[in-house]
Fold:
Amino acid sequence: MVRIQVYLTAEQREALRELGQQTGQTRSALIRRAVDGFIGRFKPSDLQKRRAALEQVHGIWKDRDDLPDFQALRREFDRNLK
Structure:
């Protein structure tokens, strides 16, 4: 292993402390898991699999008539945010 120094916010440090207590893992182990997960999301083979899955499901709901009007729902949601 290689040692590296990283700056975290107080909130991140506290969240890691709490998560470590809940899981029984050290902060270092939690950070390594998080970094592995982040790096894993960008492996070329995984990106290709994800793209292939998205292409397979593209348009599967286009002929359905039992779905709500998503544009109207979005407009209502946006109005309620104001």
In short: Residues 10-81 form one domain. Residues 32 and 38 are 10 Å apart (CA to CA). The helical segments are 10-23, 27-40, 44-57, 70-81.
